[in-house]
Write a structure and sequence with these properties.
This protein is an alpha+beta fold. The chain is about 30% helix and about 25% strand.
């Protein structure tokens, strides 16, 4: 099953930004735990999250005695902590602040002999209410759509790519395409700066662009990119970051939006790959 070409989730609920911020606050707790305990990976992939059918997950995090996983359920509004030894715990998210969530998880993980070197005070002291679950589902539906689209894009790539990941710090969904070559005059032991890369993702918005959008950026910057004019639904962005931006609102009335976005992103990745090669 693939992302439908004619059913795009709508984000019309009142105060969806506030609910998104609350969901992000919960996700940051999971990201901090995963980033602290999981084995280090390049590009900080050890601190990102993944989707499951109803929310976000840390995936299995190895320990000396097995593994544990934390899941957020954005459909019914709860968080679950499970272990490979059969231990488990479940918390209801409505009226639970991210700070309190972190406090309870840290206490439980301490019981499981997992020590973490941060305090709950780092997290927001705000909570979502039971009445916010319907809006939470709308926000989640849009994240699922973006996750599915990027997974289709990733499936067509032949070189190294990251998994499709959710980054708690900005609450965006993204995938990294890596050419396999290194950037000249950069420390090869620093993948963040040394890898030629294309970053493709989805954002729920930022200060310059408060509505959701898809994006594609290239590192390092390439003269002549993009090589062809962009379609009407896309634009070249220079406000805060440089790259291609596709406002989500430009897609909702287009029955072929998914296909056209996938075609554009595939073309842009191929174009970047060609320009990277020309520079060597």
């Amino acid at each position: 099953m693939t992302t439908s070409d004619n059913i795009l989730p709508l984000l019309d609920a009142d105060e969806w930004e506030r609910v998104r911020d609350g969901m992000q606050a919960y996700a940051r707790v999971l990201g901090k735990i995963r980033g602290t305990v999981a084995p280090h990976q390049k590009h900080f992939w050890h601190s990102s999250l993944r989707t499951h059918a109803r929310g976000l997950t840390t995936t299995n995090i190895p320990t000396s005695w097995g593994a544990f996983e934390i899941r957020l359920d954005f459909y019914d509004g709860h968080a679950t902590l499970i272990s490979s030894t059969g231990k488990a715990g479940r918390l209801s998210l409505p009226n639970l602040t991210a700070r309190r969530l972190a406090t309870l998880f840290l206490a439980k993980l301490d019981e499981w002999s997992i020590e973490l070197d941060f305090t709950p005070e780092a997290f927001d002291d705000v909570a979502l209410a039971q009445g916010d679950i319907a809006t939470m589902r709308e926000v989640w539906a849009l994240m699922v759509w973006a996750d599915s689209l990027l997974k289709q894009l990733r499936a067509g790539q032949r070189v190294e790519t990251s998994a499709v990941q959710i980054w708690p710090h900005h609450f965006d969904v993204s995938m990294l395409w890596i050419s396999g070559d290194l950037v000249a005059q950069k420390d090869p032991e620093d993948p963040e700066k040394a890898d030629e890369q294309v970053n493709v993702g989805f954002s729920f918005g930022d200060l310059a662009h408060p509505r959701p959008y898809l994006y594609l950026t290239v590192y390092p910057g390439l003269d002549g990119f993009p090589e062809k004019p962009l379609p009407d639904f896309a634009e070249w962005n220079t406000d805060g970051w440089t790259g291609v931006r596709i406002p989500y609102d430009n897609l909702t009335d287009n029955p072929r939006a998914v296909r056209e976005v996938l075609d554009l992103f595939s073309h842009l990745i191929d174009s970047a790959a060609s320009l990277f090669k020309e520079g060597h």
